[in-house]
Write a structure and sequence with these properties.
The chain is of the alpha+beta class and 457 residues long. It is built from eleven helices and ten strands. It is 31% helix and 16% strand. The two termini are 32 Å apart.
């Protein structure tokens, strides 16, 4: 524990704590403090200072209280499992209420701190976070090929229908059944999402990152899609991705590319090509509205310090998390989609021709080298899979009962640099997908993760 003084001085001690919290990102220019911008961290610090958790002398300088954050969510992105750490005064000279109660009283609507956990003095919320879980919630109309089309197409079709003598008045012109997001479509979406699983060079799925930059190598453990659910009359599906870390706009670009594949705007092979080439391709970026941080996971920290410190886990706040989603996150998304048609307008403006042209140009420059990269990944994946199965058989375990191993990370040099992954880490991969040589290729997960950089979603 770090202290500002002792009992004789009358000053209140500061304790190193980790805090799980939730917020609605609308109206904020990201989570991390940025001079001249309205950020979530500024709002949090103001509330903690007002509640007596940070002294006025230390306000405005995060280094004085050892403030760190697990993820730096982007403009408009929400969270229900964000994690911060700091040295905070838990007691108050005149208010005997819990510090979390006092802070929540000072926070605006759409913010909530769930609770704190005492941690080690050297704890860092970012570098000790093994993985992050995000959700991206998508209106099911985004998958309906008859909806969200460019206005010019719709108007041309309406004009043609006016002169169609066989057009039945008041009925569906082609007699097609209404669109339903069924299990078959869910499986299709899930298969496309799982192409992202494993270790890949995601330089085409972020911005301003060179294909030769080690930071472009990222490891995704799983990417799944739910069946539909309804919020205030709007039907959504929930996509959930778990990875060590994510780059700026990465998840939004992964979703954007997937939507184009499922809608038939471009091919699944184009999506996989962009994961295996060093040439640049255009990937559309889905709106920020549907994205939120679900959980920051600390497996390695809990394993190492579990005997001396309380484990860090969002599970103990499960009821509060679900209540926040139901009260704030999902209603915000459904109401905004109703009022602004955010996803529908985005799909109408999809740059289909530009994406196709950029992929074709990249293929010509690549000259087929991406296929060798793909085959190398396939061999490594098959070898690792066989090794795992042999180990499971020797241990008398079924393949689907193998326990997921944590992927620990070590401290980075500074906030902007990337933390390293332990050399002996052996993370699990997504559900195995049959591998065949291209074209068309299938999803392949590489066996070992790359160094785990910072989170800039």
């Amino acid at each position: 524990d770090d202290a500002t003084g002792d009992a004789a001085s009358g000053r209140i001690k500061k304790r190193k704590v980790s805090i799980f919290l939730a917020y609605v990102g609308k109206g904020y220019q990201g989570f991390q403090r940025n001079p001249g911008a309205v950020t979530v961290e500024d709002e949090l610090e103001r509330a903690i200072v007002a509640a007596g958790g940070i002294s006025a002398d230390n306000a405005g300088d995060f280094s004085k209280v050892g403030w760190t954050r697990a993820a730096r969510t982007d403009k408009g992105v929400s969270a229900v499992g964000q994690s911060i750490a700091l040295r905070m005064m838990l007691e108050h000279p005149t208010d005997n209420r819990d510090v979390i109660t006092r802070v929540n009283e000072k926070l605006p609507i759409g913010f909530e701190m769930f609770g704190y956990t005492r941690v080690t003095g050297g704890f860092n919320a970012k570098t000790m976070c093994d993985r992050r879980r995000y959700e991206y919630v998508i209106p099911t109309c985004a998958f309906d090929p008859k909806q969200c089309r460019p206005r010019a197409e719709v108007e041309a079709e309406a004009e043609f229908a006016r002169f169609d003598e066989n057009d039945a008045a008041g009925g569906d012109a082609d007699g097609a059944a209404p669109f339903v997001f069924d299990e078959a479509l869910r499986d299709r979406v899930q298969n496309v999402l799982r192409n992202y699983c494993g270790t890949h060079n995601f330089h085409n799925y972020t911005v301003r990152v060179s294909p030769d930059d080690p930071a472009a190598m990222r490891y995704i453990l799983s990417f799944d899609c739910s069946m539909p659910f309804v919020v205030n009359g709007v039907e959504f599906v929930r996509t959930t991705v778990v990875g060590q870390s994510f780059m700026l706009h990465q998840i939004r670009k992964l979703i954007g590319m997937m939507l184009g594949v499922v809608r038939g705007a471009w091919r699944e092979e184009d999506q996989i090509f962009a994961l295996n080439t060093k040439e640049s391709c255009q990937a559309p970026m889905a709106p920020e509205l549907g994205l939120f941080l679900c959980e920051c996971i600390y497996h390695a920290y809990n394993t190492r310090f579990g005997e001396t410190h309380e484990p860090l886990s969002l599970d103990k706040y499960k009821d509060k998390v679900e209540a926040f989603k139901t009260t704030h996150i999902y209603p915000h998304m459904s109401q905004t989609e109703k009022e602004e048609s955010t996803m529908q307008n985005w799909i109408r403006m999809l740059p289909v021709k530009q994406v196709r042209a950029s992929v074709e140009a990249a293929r010509k420059k690549d000259g087929g080298k991406w296929e060798e990269v793909f085959r190398t990944k396939a061999k490594a994946s098959k070898k690792a899979s066989n090794k795992r199965k042999a180990a499971e058989k020797a241990a008398g375990e079924a393949p689907d009962e193998a326990a997921e191993k944590p992927v620990p990370t070590t401290d980075g040099a500074n906030e902007k640099e990337t933390p390293d992954v332990e050399e002996n880490a052996e993370p699990t991969t997504c559900a195995e997908t049959p591998v065949a040589p291209p074209p068309p290729p299938k999803a392949v997960a590489s066996p070992d993760p790359p160094p785990s950089p910072t989170v800039d979603v």
